[in-house]
Every structure is written in structure tokens, then in C-alpha cells.
Specification:
Layout (H helix, E strand, L loop, with lengths): L6 E15 L2 E10 L6 E6 L12 E7 L2 E7 L1
Antiparallel strand pairs: 1-2, 1-4, 2-3, 4-5
Amino acid sequence: MSFLLPQDRAATVNGVKAVDIHGDRYLDLLLAYDGESEPHMARVPLSECPQGLAAGERVNVRLVMGVVTRLARA
């Protein structure tokens, strides 16, 4: 599988932290992808995440060139 191609992956949210950078809001997420043992960190704009996202939720993660661009509840 090429990391250059857009892809969707299933994951579990292990941690969520809201971040405000110069007035722009983001979520710092700790994601555990299915089939991988190491969790991954991602900073995603709040507008691209489901409202009220919490640890333990299952999500579909949209990756473009290996970078998380959007999350949706599974």
C-alpha cells in the first residue's frame, strides 16, 4: 500500500486534547490503528473531527500522503 495515495483506515481514539493556536482550534489525537501495536499522534483541525469526540471511540481516519486530514465516527 502506497502512503502517497489517499486512504481510509479504522482506528480507536486513545486520547483527545483540545489545542488553540493563534485562534485556530485543533484536536491532538492519540490513535491506535487496527493491526498496529504502536499508537500514532495526529493534530487535526476541529472542523474535520466529529463533535464531542472522546477516548475509546472507533473512527474512520482519512489519510493523505500519510497525514491525517479528517475523522468520522465508525
